[in-house]
Amino acid sequence: MIEIKHLTKDFGSLRAVDDVTFNVRRGEVLGFLGPNGAGKSTTMKMLTGFLAPTSGTASIAGHDIENDGMAAKKKLGYLPEGAPAYSDMTPAAFLEFIADIRGLTGDKKKARIAEVVRLVHLEAVLHQSIDTLSKGFKRRVGLAQAILHDPEVLVLDEPTDGLDPNQKHEVRALIRSMAPNKAIVLSTHILEEVEAVCTRAIIIARGKLLFDGTPQELLSRGPLDEVFRNITSTPSRAAVS
Ligand SMILES: Nc1ncnc2c1ncn2[C@@H]1O[C@H](COP(=O)(O)OP(=O)(O)O)[C@@H](O)[C@H]1O
Ligand SMILES: [Mg+2]
Questions:
Q1: Quick check: 241 pLDDT over 70?
Q2: Residue nearest to atom 16 of ligand 1 (CA)
Q3: Where do the domains of the chain lie?
Q4: CB atoms < 10 A from the CB of 8, how many?
Q5: Cα dist. 84→101, 137, 140, 146, 153 in Å?
Q6: d(C-alpha 145, C-alpha 149), whole Å
Q7: Residue 203 C-alpha to ligand 2 middle, in angstroms?
């Protein structure tokens, strides 16, 4: 469902993403793990067509994100980093707007909005402007827009960032419940999150892919934080040649 081949991104002299290749199948939840600045968000932005790669390709359900972007994006839900919503809108108005963009109409539109509001628990804040919401609610509005059209591929950039422990638990349960019918990539710098929700883990640091395997393989090497430190403490980032 997701194919990334030799993806590379340079920002001036900084190689933010360095020749990253991986695939994700339906039913997989891939945890994209790495320290801050590793290149996780940049990889996701290229995968979702928000940033053009310096080189390499990405495709969603067989559609190249650059050459066949419209078809790719129809299959895709994306939660960007930060609080990706119009702050002067209410969650209700924002979800209506996204539903219209996604081509949902009539009863189907109403039903999907009601469903995502229920799934991410937005009932209490539906008619309050987004800029007055807590960080946790803003993230959940972002998550609601990402899953609104029930996409086959979900790309979630730190979906539990800013949530309290209960909310983290709920979002992880939601991701697990959606997993069987979708291909999901989520980024995190929380090691336990990988264990809790992912069927597979990729570790990147300084733009390079350093590990691709199951959370069990990672855990079998020792305490997770130690393993992570060992894997990510290789020599410095490549300079742009
Ligand atoms: N638009 C940009 N211009 C210049 N440098 C950038 C830009 N976006 C990201 N970077 C740099 O690229 C590297 C990877 O960033 P990012 O992908 O956001 O990492 P992560 O999401 O893993 O924390 C960092 O060193 C960051 O400062
Ligand atoms: Mg990031």
A1: no
A2: 39
A3: 1-75+152-161+182-241, 83-150
A4: 19
A5: 15, 12, 10, 10, 18
A6: 8
A7: 13
- Ligand number nearest CA of 13 is 1
Out of 50-64, 152-166, 223-237, least confident range: 223-237
SS3 percent helix, strand, coil of the chain, rounded to 5, is 40, 25, 35
Nearest ligand 1 atom to alpha carbon 207: 14
46 lines ligand 1 (CB under 6 A): no
Residue 25 has pLDDT above 80, yes or no: yes
**Cβ neighbours for 220, distance < 8 A, ≥ 6 positions apart:** none
Percentage of the residues of the chain whose pLDDT score is greater than 70? 96
Please tell us whether the domain made up of 1-75+152-161+182-241 is placed in CATH 3.30.1340.30: no
Report pTM: 0.93
Residue 35: helix, strand or coil by DSSP?
coil
In this prediction, residue 219 carries a pLDDT of 84
| Residue 41 near ligand 1, beta carbon < 6 Å | yes
SS3 127: coil
Does 108 score more than 70 pLDDT?
yes
